[in-house]
Design goal:
By secondary structure, the chain is an alpha+beta fold. The chain has 16 helices and eleven strands. The protein folds into two domains: 207 residues, 2-Layer Sandwich (Cytochrome Bc1 Complex, Chain A, domain 1); 183 residues, Metalloenzyme, LuxS/M16 peptidase-like (Cytochrome Bc1 Complex, Chain A, domain 1). It is globular. Belongs to the peptidase M16 family.
């Protein structure tokens, strides 16, 4: 009976993917270099307007880290035509929602409105790009906001793990610095530096505009031109980040957190960026190891051997280098060394023998399900369209990326595990409770 249920689940998942609707879109460029992608879906009276800028935590002077994240907040302050504090009032007053987020590689703003408010969404984003007010009042206000956000984030249990990984895994690439930056850098920054940063990175030619949902394509094209054509082209952004030397000997490090009582062990590998085929394979490896309660590491360390409170394998995607990380919290008297050894045992198995055909098919099913879910909402589609254009250079990955995962073989999984996941290629980080005297 269980076999029949498993077979049925597999058929259902596969069927969903086969009949998943293709995401259709249209692309064009304005004369100022702004790339525009339109996606029409008239099934619900909703529209999203979003802009992704090709600027993130890795960009800018390393003595002024955190500027991209700072601008995520600052560009809600107001513009020449929107009074201070009104930006975030206008949107809910018109039935909309909004948000923004920043990674090491990009910054993303979006608004979701009833479709009859499309023009309002375009006006807001053009205002943000055309003439935001960047003054000392706004800078001082948002500096306090960012400080509070950092306190909340890093004062939470295990909140400093990413910073500890970055500072030890990267030596020369700007991924070594936290996306949120260092408070002393923001405190020391001048108003002139903030304005210069905006002029360098927030031009239309360094961005992509997505309009998705209940739209008329031709009318939307005209509106986009009306609101964005007048914005002048910015300088061309040239990046030349230093390359990291390969890790050939295990890096051992410790970090301390005053907000935890249970230590953690991490094994972190610097691997190719998310646009490479090997990165897709490592996605599958991370899911095989810890994708749910039926995964290899969870069943072994949490269920059977009861050595871990939690265990996880993550392939953290970034443009230049990914971070593949194993993470575990010990249960009872289990040592960090034991947890690391037990996780290494499972990696070694992947390197020395093929995973089963059943596990391989299960992985493909999982990624097919994720693929369908990622395209199940207008917000998800808009984010994917922006990401695939700006960071991957291929918008149609929104429809064909699943074919990459389907094509990954068991032999390829074994080969990639051998290539990147050896102990001499990693950072071993002990994340420990901080004592009063430390």
């Amino acid at each position: 009976m269980k076999k029949r249920l498993c077979l049925l689940a597999s058929i259902v998942l596969t069927g969903i993917t086969v009949f998943a609707q293709e995401v259709k879109f249209e692309e064009f460029d304005l004369d100022n270099g702004l790339h525009v992608i339109l996606h029409q879906d008239n099934t619900a009276p909703v529209v999203i307007t979003s802009v992704m800028y090709n600027v993130g935590g890795k960009d800018g002077d390393r003595s002024r880290t955190g500027f991209a994240h700072f601008f995520e907040h600052l560009l809600f302050e107001g513009t020449k035509n929107i009074d201070r504090g009104e930006f975030m009032k206008i949107i809910p007053a018109n039935g909309g929602t909004f948000n923004a987020n920043t990674s090491q590689d990009r910054t993303y703003y979006y608004e979701i409105f009833p479709s009859n408010k499309l023009e309002l969404g375009l006006w807001l984003e053009s205002e943000r790009m055309l003439h935001p007010v960047i003054d000392q009042v706004g800078v001082d206000t948002q500096n306090e906001v960012v400080k509070e956000e950092k306190r909340q984030r890093y004062d939470s249990p295990y909140g400093g793990i990413l910073e500890a990984i970055g500072s030890n895994l990267f030596k020369v690439h700007p991924y070594k610095d936290p996306n949120i930056g260092y408070i002393e850098h923001l405190d020391a920054a001048t108003l002139e530096e903030f304005n210069a940063y905006f002029k360098k990175y927030y031009g239309p030619n360094n961005a992509v505009l997505i309009v998705a949902g209940d739209i008329d394509v031709e009318k939307t094209k005209k509106l986009v031109g009306d609101y964005f054509n007048e914005i002048k082209r910015g300088p061309e952004v040239v990046r030349d980040f230093p390359e990291e030397a390969p890790i050939t000997e295990t890096i051992k490090a410790k970090a301390y957190d005053k907000n935890i009582q249970i230590p953690a062990i991490l094994a972190c590998y610097r691997t190719p960026g998310f646009g490479t085929r090997d990165a897709y394979v490592l996605d599958m490896i991370s899911s095989y190891l810890s994708g749910g309660k039926s995964s290899v590491l969870y069943k072994k360390l949490v269920d059977r051997q009861k050595q871990a409170l939690q265990v996880q394998a993550v392939n953290l995607g970034q443009m230049d280098y990914n971070i593949f990380a194993l993470f575990a919290l010990p249960l009872g008297e289990t040592t960090l060394e034991t947890l690391l050894s037990e996780m290494d045992e499972e990696i070694a198995k992947m390197q020395n023998e093929l995973i089963s055909e059943r596990d391989h098919q299960k992985l493909i099913n999982q990624f097919e399900n994720q693929f369908v879910n990622s395209n199940s909402s207008i917000a998800g589609i808009a984010s994917s369209l922006a990401t695939y254009y700006l960071l991957y250079g291929d918008v149609n990955l929104i429809n064909k990326e699943i074919d990459i995962y389907r094509s990954i073989t068991r032999e390829e999984i074994q080969a990639v595990a051998k290539k990147y996941l050896s102990p001499n290629q990693r950072l071993e980080l002990e994340y420990l409770p901080k004592k009063d005297d430390q």
